[in-house]
């Protein structure tokens, strides 16, 4: 079973390749994985349209949301519960804070 930390680490490694320095552009005060405009990918992509968010994000970052890349890489919560999103947000926050030192 994959932990949230494992998924977030995979997502961070993915972003390290396609968006070097991505963690410096995330506003931790706004970070909230429940809200597309405030999630990791939403904060990195300023050219999205709210009504078609996941399609545009998938194209922008080369993800296949139908194959659950967004969940496998920690960009979306498994089960979509409030607790799952809170735990995922906390994991991303911890990783970013660690990178910022």
List the helices and strands and how they pair.
Blueprint: H1 4-18, H2 40-44, H3 53-61, H4 69-72, H5 82-100
Overall description:
It is a single chain. By secondary structure, this protein is mainly alpha-helical. It has one domain. It is built from five helices and no strands. It has helices at residues 4-18, 40-44, 53-61, 69-72, 82-100. The longest helix is centred in the last third of the chain and has 19 residues, at 82-100. The chain is globular. The N and C termini lie far apart (29 Å). The model has no long low-confidence stretch (mean pLDDT 84).
What is the strand tally? Answer: 0
Distance between the termini: 29 Å
Q: What portion of residues is helical?
A: 40-55%
Structural domains: how many: 1
- Indicate the proportion of strand residues: under 5%
Structural class comes to mainly alpha
What is the residue-averaged pLDDT?
Answer: 84
Which value, in Å, is the CA radius of gyration? 12 Å
Task: Based on Cα principal axes, name the global outline.
Answer: globular
Largest sheet: none
Helical run tally: 5
Poorly predicted runs are none
In sequence order, what are the helices and strands, one letter per element?
HHHHH
């Amino acid at each position: 079973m994959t932990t949230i930390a494992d998924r977030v680490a995979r997502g961070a490694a993915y972003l390290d390749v396609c968006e070097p320095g991505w963690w410096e552009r995330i506003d931790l005060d706004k970070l909230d994985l429940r809200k597309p405009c405030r999630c990791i990918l939403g904060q990195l992509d300023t050219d999205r349209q709210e009504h078609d968010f996941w399609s545009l994000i998938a194209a922008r970052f080369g993800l296949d949301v139908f194959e659950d890349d967004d969940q496998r890489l920690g960009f979306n919560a498994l089960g979509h519960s409030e607790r799952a999103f809170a735990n995922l947000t906390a994991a991303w926050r911890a990783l970013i804070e660690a990178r910022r030192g």
